[in-house]
Amino acid sequence: MTVAAKKTLLITGAEGQLGQCFQYILKGDATYQVHFVSKAQCDLTDAVKIQSVITAVQPDIVINCAGYTQVDAAEQNTEQAAAVNVTALKNLMLAAEATPFFLLHFSTDYVFEGTQKTPYSETDQINPLNVYGETKRRGEELLFKAATPHCCIRTSWVFSPFGKNFLNTIIQKLEAQSPLRVVEDQFARPTSGLDLARAVIQLLETPHASQYRLYHFANTGSTSWYGFAKEIAVQIGSNTPIHPIATTQIQQAAPRPKYSVLSTDRMEKLGNFPLRLWQEALKECITITNEKRY
Q1: CA pair distance 113, 87, nearest whole angstrom
Q2: Which of 26, 52, 195, 277 gets the highest tally of CB atoms within 10 A of its CB?
């Protein structure tokens, strides 16, 4: 998986949260020839369009940041979720048959049912509780059958200065000074999208990384959504009340795993992968968010 200088990267889903994180960390980078494509430029559910873009760009590596991530909406929009999380991946794999490239894809902690009491490793059994998790499971299984070289990275609770995510939603609500009710009985490891993007680039440059097709990545330390929200409030200096509630006290279309903490031992053992605390990564994202606003 080691990448030589001036390899060509094609990054899909450029306008999504993770795509914007890659744009941020690769800005001014001279190591790669990077092409970002948005859904409007390359709808991954259109096999002909994908092949056209791949033929034009001739990428060495495709990083697929596109994904259907609306967990509750997926319960009703099952076909759309499957089209983006499964069919689009199949189309990329077909394109790789004509124009070979290394394919890196992302999955989620929601492939786990959340009954364990210890962190989930890459070898633990998966059993998603909702449609979103099921489409990501199907995507994983499809990818692992691909003839093209590939890698999948599972992650959890991604936040960043970009797009719609828990961090930005909580900041908006805190600034509106309306008391919040946040779930306290779901636990995972929050992940900075910026750190995830950095880790991906580092992984591509790491010798022997290709010994595994699946990795977990998340920042260090686990918490609940309530604990996450409280830390956001502390870091932005908000005194808006935040009340802990149980999952049973809110109405959500999709069930969530109560515990989906990921073990990142596999990636850490590759060497030179210092994973920082999620609170530290949060501070960076809040700083960038403030810089964007002023």
Answers
A1: 24
A2: 195
Which two structure tokens, joined as six digits, stand for 224? 């609940």
From the list 130, 139, 137, 36, the residue with the least C-alpha distance to 83 is: 139
The average pLDDT across 227-235 equals: 97
- Residue 47 burial (CB count, 10 A): 16
Helices 166-175 and 225-236: crossing angle in degrees, nearest 10, is 60
CA distance 165 to 159: 6
The size of the chain, in residues, is: 294
Residue 293 has pLDDT above 80, yes or no: no
As a three-state string, the secondary structure of 79-115 is HHHHHHHHHHHHHHHHHHHHCCCEEEEEEEHHHCCCC
Residues 6+ apart with CB under 8 A from 4: none
Q: Nearest to residue 133, comparing CAs of 78, 176, 186?
A: 78
Give first-to-last CA distance, the chain, whole Å.
40
**How many other C-beta atoms lie within 10 A of the C-beta of residue 14?**
21
**Mean pLDDT on 114-121:** 96
Token pair of 250 as six digits = 């809110």
Determine the pLDDT at residue 2.
52
Of 190, 289, 261, 288, nearest to 230 by C-alpha is: 190
Beta-carbon contacts of 250 under 8 Å, excluding residues fewer than 6 positions away, are 181, 183
Domains, the chain: 7-165+190-219+260-276 (3.40.50.720)
pLDDT of 159 over the 90 cut: yes
Q: pTM value?
A: 0.94
pLDDT at position 1, please?
A: 54
